[in-house]
Design a protein that fits this description.
By secondary structure, the protein is of the alpha+beta class. The protein is built from ten helices and 15 strands. It starts with a helix and ends with a helix. The structure holds adenosine-5'-triphosphate (ATP) and magnesium ion (MG). One of its GO terms (molecular function) is ATP binding.
Length: 342
């Protein structure tokens, strides 16, 4: 399939956009002119963010569609490969919790990937970035995002064929649509897992703070590496702490090493993001933290598969709600009693 795409990369895409909608792949081959126009010539004001792979710009097509365009930094063999993998893998996946490919442009030295624009940007911008002060992530939203991202990973690990290991699960790669649904993005580092293979050995890619130890040390990659990164992400979602924090004196502390002693001493409420105040469900918080600690177990074989993680998260939310209803009913009864006494 890749070879077929690369045949298209010879520059002939300057012609009219060729749509694959309704055919094999639901993406479009955009013209450079259209994307230059949509992003106001990649104007600084349109910049949404910058990553290792390139810069992302907001754009609006002539049809009025809002798009995000990722522009590759410099053309090297490495970036060309990441572009090809991203396009190849995104062309295969369709799931409500994965950011799908809208189209791309490849010609000359330009490599551009087009996605749907996500109006609520990425999880990182709400936890630590420019949207953090808006306090838009209340507790139910955080749970919805955690479960959504987990469901995206279930699709990659258990439903896609061949299975896909993402290898770069982190807060900046979880984007949020207008209704705060999570969309897992960035497949430039992803690996396809051939049938019957339990793990692969590769060069280490990904982001410090999220890397499973067996992967960071020996390059041993399996679905359990994504589970580890997801565990770190869960802790980040509930606490709004960074995966690695620099302590005074320059010592670095990983989020798991911060949470573990708090849990051991039963000081759960200290794990929650202080900005939530007391507006979080304590039972749900405990459940999420316990799931996160299982996901970040040092031994990959002890980590739960993503299917189980989703079940654990969902049942925690259900139980939390049941408890809430019981408490509410109790409070209502007490109110009634008070009324009667008056
Ligand atoms: N479809 C999109 N809609 C809205 N904003 C987006 C979209 N895609 C990316 N962004 C924004 O652009 C930023 C940069 O994304 P990018 O994937 O290039 O880098 P990163 O995830 O921060 O780092 P890395 O290159 O290590 O993955 C994101 O944090 C996000 O805020
Ligand atoms: Mg990214």
């Amino acid at each position: 399939m890749l070879r077929r795409w690369f045949c298209c990369f010879s520059g002939e895409l300057e012609a009219k956009p060729r749509s694959n909608k309704g055919h094999d792949y639901p993406w479009e081959a955009y013209t450079l002119r259209e994307l230059v126009h949509a992003t106001n010539n990649f104007h600084e004001k349109n910049k949404l963010g910058e990553g290792g792979f390139g810069t992302v710009y907001f754009g609006q097509t002539s049809k009025g569609e809002e798009i995000a365009v990722k522009r590759l930094k410099a053309m090297t063999a490495k970036t060309e490969m990441e572009f090809a993998i991203e396009v190849e893998i995104l062309g295969r996946v369709r799931h409500k919790n994965l950011l799908s490919l809208k189209g791309f442009y490849a010609g000359g030295d330009e490599r551009l990937i087009v996605y749907d624009y996500m109006p609520n940007l990425s999880l990182i911008s709400h936890l630590h970035g420019r949207r953090a002060a808006d306090l838009l992530l209340d507790w139910p939203r955080r749970m919805k995002i955690a479960i959504g991202a987990a469901e995206g990973l279930v699709y990659l690990h258990h439903e896609a064929s061949p299975h896909i290991i993402h290898r770069d699960i982190k807060a900046s790669n979880v984007l949020l649509d207008a209704d705060f649904n999570a969309k897992v993005a960035d497949f430039g580092f992803a690996k396809l897992v051939p049938e019957g293979v339990s793990h692969l050995t590769t060069r280490v890619k990904g982001t410090l703070g999220y890397l499973a130890p067996e992967y960071a040390m020996w390059g041993k990659v399996s679905e359990a590496c994504d589970v580890y990164s997801f565990g770190v992400l869960l802790l980040e979602i509930v606490s709004a702490r960074k995966p690695i924090e620099k302590l005074p004196g320059g010592v670095k502390r990983e989020i798991v090493n911060w949470v573990t002693p708090l849990v051991e001493r039963g000081r759960w409420e200290h794990v929650a993001d202080p900005r939530l105040g007391d507006k979080f469900d304590k039972a749900q918080l405990r459940n999420v933290v316990m799931v996160a600690l299982r996901c970040t177990n040092g031994r990959p074989e002890n980590r739960p598969p993503m299917l189980e993680v989703v079940e654990l998260l969902k049942s925690g939310v259900r139980e939390g709600r049941t408890k809430e209803v019981v408490v509410m009913k109790k409070e209502m009864r007490e109110d009634d009693d008070d009324g009667w006494r008056d």
